[in-house]
Specification:
Blueprint lengths: L4 E5 L3 H12 L3 E5 L11 E4 L1 H9 L7 E3 L1 E6 L2 E6 L7 E5 H14 L3 E3 L4 E6 L4 E5 L4 E4 L1 E4 L6 H6 L8 E13 L6 E6 L2 E9 L9 E9 L2 H6 L2 H12 L4 H11 L5 E9 L11 E3 L13 H17 L4 H28 L5 H17 L7
Parallel strand pairs: 1-2, 1-12, 2-8, 5-14, 12-18
Antiparallel strand pairs: 3-7, 4-7, 5-6, 9-10, 10-11, 13-16, 13-17, 14-15, 15-16
Helix pairs in contact: 1-3, 1-8, 2-8, 8-9
Bound molecules: flavin-adenine dinucleotide (FAD).
The site of flavin-adenine dinucleotide has 34 residues, from helix 1, strand 3 and helix 8.
């Protein structure tokens, strides 16, 4: 057993995955999480094949639904792409199902996850680090990992001279999960001013008896309006948009809207400026805390890859050179993926029929040129 005791702040994908990987190397950790419970409205996420491979190495049960294709629809035009054939496929899964499996694996390894612990401050000395909660509880360890997400407190504490708080990305993210056993490959329907995505995502959680689909969209609005959004206002906007959808998509939506157990999740989307400083002598950041870009379809795989890389750094003794290389290599990858996603998200969909048609023609050309195979 290593002599390290690692305190991990945040029981999201990054924090729990790191705890699991450390436990597999006989390194002790404790996870501190501000939330009391993990239920509440959930949404779907796509995890790339690279991320799924890491989940398998962590011995996670099969979750979600395989997805190897993305279909793009632009009115009457469509373009279809598949990922290069590999032994592992990307999946669509609910956050709840993923979290449930991570917690199950963490408990099976005897990892202690403390809930209701909202980290408010930290201090470090030459050989230890200590965090204090907002109710003045203290936990001490030899290392401290900030896996506390896009609004990371630990990022702010580590970068006090830099403004690194989260910033509004300009839109409300809306996700809708409802029962549907029919397999739907990830399909993005483009309409003037908005895009609708739909895909099968497997069971909402382990206890569910049916499979579900996930339908999502973005609603552009000022932050103040996004904070005031209600279930009724979001449903009204979806119904208004549905009037413009293809008969096939509208029929599905009307069916879904009647499902009393459907789950609607919505919220303002935030990202932030990646900080200059990812680590100090006893502390380091991973996941969205280190690279807080908005949704880009890679955040979970990035968190898993960060966890794998950091586990190796800790197992080797948390040396200065290893930490520097961790920041350099992980920042390089997150910058490439995150900035591309930010550009896509901030551009927004075309607002005219002609713009949509032009995009459709361009995508059709890409489909022909790449023979319908793309990394995504
Ligand atoms: C709308 C939306 C859609 C997305 N879609 C996708 C997708 O399809 N595919 C994909 O790969 N990624 C997607 N992402 C990104 C992905 O969700 C994140 O990149 C990923 O969850 C990051 O994991 P994390 O563990 O770093 O952070 P989080 O999952 O945010 O976990 C951080 C944890 O820290 C806790 N915490 C925060 N502050 C404190 C504190 N002070 N003390 C203690 N605990 C604290 C939080 O409660 C939380 O549990 C999406 C993001 C959004 C917003």
């Amino acid at each position: 057993m290593s002599s390290e005791k690692v305190i991990i702040v945040g029981a999201g994908v990054a924090g729990l995955s790191l705890a699991i990987m450390l436990a597999e190397q006989n390194i002790e950790s404790q996870v501190l999480e501000s939330r009391q419970r993990f239920d509440g409205p959930t949404s779907g996420v796509r995890i790339s094949a690279e991320g799924v491979k890491i989940l398998r190495l962590m011995k996670m049960d099969a979750i979600g639904e395989d997805t190897q294709r993305v279909d793009l629809r632009f009115g009457g035009l469509s373009a279809s792409f598949s990922a290069p054939k590999r032994d592992t496929s990307a999946i669509m899964v609910t956050r709840l199902a993923l979290h449930e499996q991570l917690m199950k694996r963490a408990h099976s390894l005897g990892i202690c996850v403390v809930t209701g612990f909202n980290v408010a401050a930290m201090t470090e000395s030459a050989d230890s680090a200590e965090v204090t909660s907002d109710s003045n509880e203290k936990v001490t360890g030899t290392l401290l990992v900030g896996a506390d997400g896009v609004g990371s407190k630990l990022r702010q504490l580590l970068n006090s001279v830099q403004s690194s708080t989260k910033t509004y990305a300009g839109y409300l993210g809306v996700g809708f999960i409802t029962r549907d056993e029919t397999k739907i490959e990830m399909t993005l329907h483009n309409y003037p001013g908005h895009q609708i995505g739909i895909a099968s995502c497997g069971k909402v959680n382990e206890a569910a008896t049916n499979k579900s689909i996930f339908m999502w969209t973005h609603i552009r609005m000022p932050e103040a309006d996004a904070k005031l959004a209600t279930q009724a206002s979001v449903e009204a906007e979806l119904a208004r948009r549905a009037e413009r959808w293809s008969p096939e998509l509208r029929r599905k939506y009307e069916l879904y809207a009647r499902d009393a157990e459907a789950i609607l999740a919505y919220g303002p989307i935030y990202n932030g400026k990646p900080p200059d400083r990812w680590y100090s002598s006893r502390m380091i950041l991973i996941g969205d805390a280190a690279h807080p870009y908005g949704p880009g379809g890679q955040g979970i795989s990035m968190a898993l890859k960060d966890a794998r890389a950091l586990c190796a750094v800790i197992a080797r003794g948390f040396a200065e050179d290893d930490k520097r290389e961790f920041q350099r290599s992980r920042a390089q990858e997150s910058r490439a993926l995150g900035e591309a996603a930010e550009k896509r998200n901030s551009k927004g969909p075309s607002s005219t029929k002609w713009g949509i048609l032009a995009e459709g023609v361009a995508m059709k050309a890409v489909e022909i040129f790449t023979r319908g195979t793309l990394e995504f």
